[in-house]
Amino acid sequence: MLPRSHALVSGLRTHCARVVREVLELYAPPLCPACDEPTAVHRALCALCLSGLERTSPTAVQGVLAPYAHDGTLVSLVHRAKFAASELAAQTMGLLLRDCLSEITAQFDVVVPVPLHDQRLRERGYNQSHVIAQMLDAGPVVHALARPKRTLAQARLTREDRADNVRDAFVLQNPRLVRGLRVLLVDDVVTTGATLTAAHTALLAAQPSSVHCVAVARAILRSGL
Ligand SMILES: [Zn+2]
């Protein structure tokens, strides 16, 4: 099968899985988005998964505020949001982040999600960072950036290779959406910060008033990478 056909089929399969899941959610009792055990309301974690959340530093580290460790429950949510077509998991990640940002969300004018490359967006059916951004109540979500460069998955790269991989990955496509404004730049997981740094750098060309970077979770780069 040609690569492009394969991508289309993969994207269609992902879209169908998402539609089926959303229909089931309408009629089924609410399930924990991290483990599928019954919960009280939609998008709520069960007690066990709630206990599996690990908070990190309440302040920004290397310019990025990421209130949860990429461990336990967050690993399950991120995996489901990225690879199992679970927009529900991404929404839950957004709500978790919103709860941690509630005291500062009034400080921003617009929210910019880190974009996906178009092909990856078609395969996944949605951008998990966009879904997270929508849940934050920190201002309108605007698409100031585009990601024309198809990059490798960061997870298997070294710190140095990660920076090279995403360098020049982002371009400013709508500078007027952020010019002079206080911007909240949102991603799902931060590890070395290379992706957010590259997106941040691209945004600065629009001369925003300020740019603050947040991610739901912070991962530790495994030794050897
Ligand atoms: Zn659970």
Q: What kind of oligomer do you see?
A: single chain
Instruction: Quote the average pLDDT.
Output: 88
Instruction: Give the class from helix and strand content and strand pairing.
Output: alpha/beta
Query: Which architecture does the CATH hierarchy give at level 2?
Result: 3-Layer(aba) Sandwich
Largest sheet: 5 strands, parallel
| CATH fold title | Rossmann fold
**In CATH, what is the class?**
Alpha Beta
The string of secondary-structure elements, in order, is HHEEHHEHHEHEEHE
Total count of domains: 1
Bound molecules: zinc ion
Query: How big is the Rg?
Result: 17 Å
Count of beta strands? 7
Shape: globular
Rounded to the nearest angstrom, the distance between the terminal CA atoms is 33 Å
Low-pLDDT sequence parts: none
Helix content: 25-40%
